């Protein structure tokens, strides 16, 4: 092979304290459940590309094969979610069978030395819950806490690490602001009602998970957190209005969630700065889902939180049109480590890239940033790539490709992508070598 003349890539070591793996979510991969709100949404023909979540990756029936693939990719950790609607298809009626299934799946992970991180709510929920007003109904707190108790009582001896809610900020934005998620009811009042109830639910679940595990005899090791979608909001032209809009967005998309879910502080408009559930630390790690940044301009639309979001002109984008901006991960981790001093888990980071031309470089760039952060003393302990395999990308459907593994939905055949092989090798070696650069990374 001819020697390369120049490349922007160089060999580097990954921190040994960093555990690598990938993330998925129930409805996006499992298939077979007709009691969740996304099933109904698909039935109503609402998915953009006309596809359906009813089969998805058929992971429910193929989890053993998929764990084999994780092993091939040298996963040390894996983030998955439990489907609430399977456990409680009717309000108050809990089923044991799906819990037995999840137990077997988790046991299989453990048998393969893959440590699970389990999410209790990842965008999907029972239809009955959605129909009672979902998270805007104050009863949602009791409903979710009850469900969390059931699951943790059943699986808590196998699972030490939990995420209560995935991206409550994206969930609320997509449900009540841009209203692209079911039940598509735009209302800024609902956004804040939901925010209050999700914060309360997180705190209650945090307390219960610790209590339950303690009663089981696990005095240490329990870690509970939330996976927040953190974005970089920059302005192009500094003006009073653009700054105002940037600050309003920071407040309603980041700060309200962070202060509420980490410290128990309910800031305006979900409270007046008090601690209705007690002042505390309600996150044992800082879970960051990081994808991209936005350029913020002022908008008069309160429903869009007074912001119009644009893509930074001239930057590289992925298939979704999102800017690829690895430096944003650095800025976020640095900033929130300085404020909250919690160990950081990158609970999601990935790229929609059907041709797989950008993914290996994306992984390289983001892991390089993490190495730099760890060298500077910022404890980034986990990296869960989104996603293990192609899956059902919510309102966008099955055609959006985020996987380290390509899935043929006709045959359910899985094929590890080149970028997946790269990720597997670097997870095994704990470093990026010149040979890997030669093999996997494009000249630039
Ligand atoms: C995140 C979601 C995840 C997936 C990725 C692409 O916002 O948590 O389920 O859809 O985006």
Give a written overview of the molecule.
By secondary structure, the protein is α/β, with parallel strands linked by helices. It has one domain: TIM Barrel. It is 40% helix and 16% strand. The chain contains 14 helices and 15 strands. An 8-stranded parallel beta barrel has the order 2-3-4-5-6-8-11-12, surrounded by 6 helices. The protein has a 3-stranded mixed β-sheet with strand order 7-9-10. It has a two-stranded antiparallel ribbon with strand order 1-15. Helix 7 runs parallel beside helix 9 and helix 11 runs parallel beside helix 12. It is globular. 48% of the residues are buried. Beta-D-fucopyranose (FCB) binds next to loops.
Q: Short summary of the structure?
A:
By secondary structure, the chain is of the alpha/beta class.
- Unreliable runs: none
Alpha plus pi helix count = 14
Instruction: Give me the CATH architecture, please.
Output: Alpha-Beta Barrel
For the biggest sheet, the summary is: 8 strands, parallel, barrel
Strand order of the largest sheet: 2-3-4-5-6-8-11-12
**DSSP summary, beta strand count:** 15
CATH class category label: Alpha Beta
The percent of residues in helical segments reads: 25-40%
Shape: globular
- At the fourth level of CATH, the homologous superfamily is Glycosidases
Give the rounded overall mean pLDDT.
Answer: 97
How many angstroms does the end-to-end distance come to?
17 Å
What is the count of structural domains?
Answer: 1
Which class best fits the helix and strand makeup? alpha/beta
Radius of gyration: 21 Å
- In CATH, the topology is named TIM Barrel
Strand content: 15-25%
- The SSE string, one letter per element, is EEHHHEHHEHHEHHEEHEEEHEHEEEHEH
């Amino acid at each position: 092979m001819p020697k390369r003349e120049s490349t922007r890539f160089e060999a580097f070591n990954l921190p040994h304290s960093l555990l690598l793996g990938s993330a998925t979510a129930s409805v996006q991969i499992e298939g077979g459940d007709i009691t969740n709100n996304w099933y109904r949404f698909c039935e109503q023909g609402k998915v953009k590309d006309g596809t359906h979540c009813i089969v998805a990756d058929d992971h429910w029936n193929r989890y053993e094969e998929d764990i084999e693939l994780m092993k091939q990719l040298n996963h040390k950790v894996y983030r998955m979610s439990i489907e609430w609607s399977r456990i409680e298809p009717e309000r108050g009626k809990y089923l044991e069978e799906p819990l037995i299934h999840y137990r077997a799946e988790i046991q299989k992970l453990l048998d393969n030395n893959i440590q699970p991180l389990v999410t209790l709510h990842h965008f999907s929920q029972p239809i009955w819950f959605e129909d009672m007003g979902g998270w805007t109904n104050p009863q949602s707190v009791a409903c979710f806490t009850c469900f969390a108790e059931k699951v943790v009582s059943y699986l808590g001896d196998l699972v030490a690490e939990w995420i209560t809610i995935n991206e409550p900020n994206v969930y609320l934005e997509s449900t009540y602001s841009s209203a692209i998620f079911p039940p598509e009811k735009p209302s800024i009042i609902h956004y804040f009602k939901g925010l209050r109830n999700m914060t309360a639910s997180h705190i209650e679940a945090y307390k219960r998970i610790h209590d339950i595990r303690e009663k089981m005899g696990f005095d240490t090791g329990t870690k509970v957190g939330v996976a927040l979608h953190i974005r970089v909001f920059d302005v192009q032209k500094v003006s009073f209005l653009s700054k105002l809009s940037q600050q309003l967005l920071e407040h309603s998309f980041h700060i309200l969630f962070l202060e509420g879910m980490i410290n128990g502080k309910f800031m305006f408009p979900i409270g007046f700065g008090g601690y209705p559930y007690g002042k505390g630390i309600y996150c044992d790690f800082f879970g960051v889902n990081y994808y991209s940044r936005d350029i913020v301009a002022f908008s008069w639309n309160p429903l869009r939180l007074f912001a119009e979001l644009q893509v930074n002109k001239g930057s590289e984008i992925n298939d979704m049109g999102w800017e690829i901006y690895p430096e944003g991960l650095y800025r976020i981790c640095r900033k929130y480590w300085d404020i909250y001093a919690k160990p950081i888990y990158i609970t999601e980071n990935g790229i929609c890239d059907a041709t797989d031309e950008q993914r290996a470089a994306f992984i390289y760039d983001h892991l390089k940033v993490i190495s730099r952060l760890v060298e500077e003393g910022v404890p980034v302990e986990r990296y869960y790539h989104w996603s293990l395999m192609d899956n059902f990308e919510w309102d966008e459907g099955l055609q959006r490709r985020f996987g380290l593994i390509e899935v043929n939905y006709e045959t359910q055949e899985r094929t590890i992508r080149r970028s997946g092989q790269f990720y597997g090798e670097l997870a095994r070696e704990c470093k990026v070598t010149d040979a890997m650069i030669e093999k996997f990374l494009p000249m630039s």
